[in-house]
Amino acid sequence: QWEPNSGNGQAIVHLFEWKWSDIAAECENFLGPRGFAGVQISPPNENAALYLGEQTRPWWERYQPVSYRLFTRSGDENAFKDMVNRCNSVGVRIYADIVINHMTGWHPAGTGATGGSSFDAGSESYPAVPYSGFDFNDANCHTGSGNIENYGDAEQVRNCKLVGLNDLNQGSDYVRGKIKDYLNTLVGYGVAGFRVDASKHMWPGDMKVIFDSVNNLPTKYFKAGSRPFVFQEVIDLGGEAIGSMEYVGIGRVTEFKYGKFLGEAFRGKNQLKWLSNFGEGWGMLDRAYSLVFIDNHDNQRGHGAGGDMILTFRQSKLYKMATAFMLAFPYGYTRLMSSYYWDQNWVNGQDKNDWIGPPHDDNYNTLSPTFNTDGSCGNGWICEHRWRQIYSMVEFRNVAHGTDMNDWWDNGNNQIAFCRGDRGFIAINNEGYDMKETLQTCLSAGKYCDVISGSKEGGSCTGKTVTVDGAGKAYIEITTMEEDGVLAIHANSKL
Ligand code: AAO
């Protein structure tokens, strides 16, 4: 299903590795009031608890399921229920990251799990589900190593192990039933949809059967007959056996080209003027099927796809510019990344610290974010979604929803501007010189507050103001001395 089951909100945020209790509070205190549609949460099911010496409790242990019990470093089942309930009550939806392609990788017998369940990866025994050797794809995989060796061969991408992870056979009725039960538990608690991990590694036909078997969303929070939103993680930058198009009949698909192309453009490898037909015109999925983002939890640390073109919080000025473009431009359903900080340690082009888990105490319990007086986060949490330039553009996207892009302008290079119907106007300056132009804004005459350099508070503006004349034109200035290379005004920022 392709629609997010949210109200007016047009952007979701991935609160990567946050605890359920902190997400509940964030829904109430920030996300609901600011018009966010929902939250992608880290996988809620029990996972292997990995103490690998150097790499103790890596973030990626959560992608190694041990059972479908709701018990992780983010919290237990009660905390989970409370979060979904409280977020739904303020109109913020919860989308669960579901890991159903596989179970754990190999670990010595006796390795623990977050909920205390036992498992034996070597014999593929996961008694808390229960799964046993019969439920995995070993007999269907024909590579020497049992792993995926060649992404040019669809058969092995789907039937062999992804980086050594025991590969479930979704063709089996028993496995389908166990996954269905898990998803129905989540739906029963009020989850509005799923981010489907490693979808490329499952057969679309099997996924269709599984998602069709899941219950409708509960009428306590949703319209009768609502189906869970599905967005599938498929990395398709071209050139492989499997394409994103194979999955659009089930739900939306992550469009990994999007963040790569925008990273290239804002890093100066491509002129911004070409963005006027960004989207389908660039060989990306139809907008009705795509889920778009600047970075995700993988490619912000060199896993997954996109390489060194991906922008993250570490390039904050460019990151805010690319994010503003994404939220202003009418293509795809948008997801924001909300990260925690870690020190990078580059050795031969690879970050040796790419495994580091979330901020934690001495016992590896995840820490809560703290909040500074300006609303930004502390305790190691970056909280990009709390940066004014980012959450203000979430409001812009909501205000402009339902309009198309019109009145594109560019300087033939890296200064661009466009309107969203008569609802919003944005200008971006990625040149090494000032932007000083009189441009069509498409807005009604009056004074507007630029929601990038400040915000509208009461009747006044803490940032730059823009005066639109009777013909919709206004003088727009973005100098290179400014903190940000963006100016944005919209119907709700009229003074
Ligand atoms: C960990 C250890 C492993 C160990 C394993 C088992 O790191 O050394 O063998 O445990 O014990 C995460 C981590 C993994 C971690 C795993 C389990 O990232 O490091 O393994 O948890 O704990 C592929 C998949 C895609 C996947 C991505 C990371 O297709 O689904 O790899 N993402 C999801 C999650 C991710 C998670 C998992 C899946 C597993 O978001 O967090 O892994 O649950 C090509 C292919 C892609 C492929 C990439 C990377 O991409 O197209 O499909 O993604 O390679 O293998 C250019 C190309 C681009 C190419 C890319 C990289 O950009 O254009 O196509 O280069 O070559």
TrEMBL record:
EC number: 3.2.1.1
UniProtKB keywords: Calcium, Carbohydrate metabolism, Chloride, Disulfide bond, Glycosidase, Hydrolase, Metal-binding, Signal
Catalytic activity field: Endohydrolysis of (1->4)-alpha-D-glucosidic linkages in polysaccharides containing three or more (1->4)-alpha-linked D-glucose units
InterPro entries according to UniProt: A-amylase/branching_C (IPR006048), A-amylase_C (IPR031319), Alpha_amylase (IPR006046), GH (IPR017853), GH13_cat_dom (IPR006047), Glyco_hydro_b (IPR013780)
GO terms, biological process: carbohydrate metabolic process
Domain Glycosyl hydrolase family 13 catalytic: start-end pairs: 10-397
Single GO MF descriptor: metal ion binding
CDD domains: AmyAc_bac_euk_AmyA
Highest taxon of source: Eukaryota
Cofactors, names only: Ca(2+); chloride
Domain Alpha-amylase C-terminal: 406-494
Enzyme class: hydrolase
Pfam families, per the entry: Alpha-amylase, Alpha-amylase_C
Subunit and interaction comment: Monomer.
The family this protein is said to belong to: Belongs to the glycosyl hydrolase 13 family.
Stored PANTHER family: ALPHA-AMYLASE
Stated name of the protein: Alpha-amylase
Organism per entry: Scylla paramamosain (Mud crab)
Lineage: Eukaryota, Metazoa, Ecdysozoa, Arthropoda, Crustacea
